[in-house]
TrEMBL record:
This is YIP1 family protein. Pfam families: Yip1 (PF04893). The lineage of its organism: Bacteria, Pseudomonadati, Pseudomonadota, Alphaproteobacteria, Rhodobacterales. It is a multi-pass membrane protein. It comes from Palleronia pontilimi. The keyword Cell division does not apply. It is found in: Membrane. Keywords: Membrane, Transmembrane, Transmembrane helix. Residues 15-184 form the Yip1 domain. GO terms for cellular component: membrane. The chain crosses the membrane at residues 41-64, 76-97, 109-131, 137-157, 169-195. The keyword Transmembrane applies.
Amino acid sequence: MSLLSIPNLAGLVRDTLRAPRPTFARLMALKIDRVTLWQTLLLVVVLSIFVGEVSNLVLVAMLPADGARPLLLTPLTLGLIQMAILVVSVFLIDWIGRSFGGKGRFPDAILAVAWVQFIMMCLQILQFVAMLLVPPLAGLILLAGMVLFFWLLTNFIAELHGFDNLGKVFGMIVMVLIGVALGLSFLLTLVGVTVPR
């Protein structure tokens, strides 16, 4: 049975939620080549944008006719931004992990980002369904998704680089996020981009 079959993917998602590190170790053991992993990451981004666009179309259609419409980025722009962020994340996970003594392989850094993104996409679908059927539950899923994202990423990076202390890995992730946010803010200021008031 193919790894990409729905039963296999569903089983891997379930196992990842139950035991992130052992499941990610199983995925790394597959030794998927770098080209396939980049293609997989691109595919996940495309699917994520598709799910987001379908959600937006449905939700906008549910708004009152005279209600204000949200300003949305085009799918291409959103996809390029998301892909750029994920590619930068791959290199940061590999480079910073190695600078702290990690032993991870670069292709497995791609795998970590792609698999986290896939699970977040599954959660995105769940949140959309909840928004249609039980709207108050959608907010809880969003909060749970944020916690899940950091939990999975911390475990994946720890398994990737052979780190034992999850607390230190999480602290490293937070510091990197703050550094990237500050650097991006500084760069945008240099080029004259300001936040509208």
